[in-house]
Amino acid sequence: MQEAPRLSLRWIVRLAVLALLASQGPMHGYAIYKRLLSIFARARLISPSLVYTVLSELEQEELVEEAGFVEGAPSGGRRLLRITEKGLNHLAEHGGMAWRLFGELLVLLVQGEAEARLQIGDYGGLVNLAGEVIGLSEKLRKIGERVLPETGGSEEVR
């Protein structure tokens, strides 16, 4: 088993791209960028150059490959990319650890934001933050039920 690189935004984005392609099927770069923007919206860390650099790296490492071409895009067309078998293996090997680390980071950020909003008296913002956390929790619960329908999720997830 290959050792995982140090936690970095690029490493997380690489795994997020692979996860998107594994779950959504072939996508073009701009669609991947827009989806990552929505996933990482709170952190505002995603840029087109980061996403396209990561896509290029993944393609060079044969973790993704071209899967066709979409005609009629403003630039004349867009290449569709799909995850390869090697990419699926990479995601299976490193994905769990990355998402656990990312989850821990998000918990710290949410706790810090909540404490700051409480200190400055931004109770409306605090309520909005709580609503976002509840919404994310519900999405994760539904994914867990889909993946583990017989048990409704594992004890560790509940």
Question: What do you see in this structure?
Answer:
The protein is mostly helical and 158 residues long. It has two domains: 81 residues, Winged helix-like DNA-binding domain superfamily/Winged helix DNA-binding domain (Arc Repressor Mutant, subunit A), CATH 1.10.10; 51 residues. The chain has five helices and three strands, in the order H-E-H-H-E-E-H-H. Strands 1-3-2 form a three-stranded antiparallel beta sheet. A hairpin with a 5-residue loop joins strand 2 and strand 3. The longest helix has 36 residues. The protein starts with 8 loop residues before the first helix and ends in an 11-residue tail after the last helix.
Summarize the structure.
With 158 residues, the protein is mainly α. It has helices spanning 9-24, 29-39, 48-60, 85-120, 123-147; strands at 27-28, 64-71, 77-83.
Name some characteristics of this structure:
Transcriptional regulator PadR family protein; mainly alpha; 64% helix; 3 strands; Tscrpt_reg_PadR_N; 5 helices; three-stranded antiparallel beta sheet; Arc Repressor Mutant, subunit A
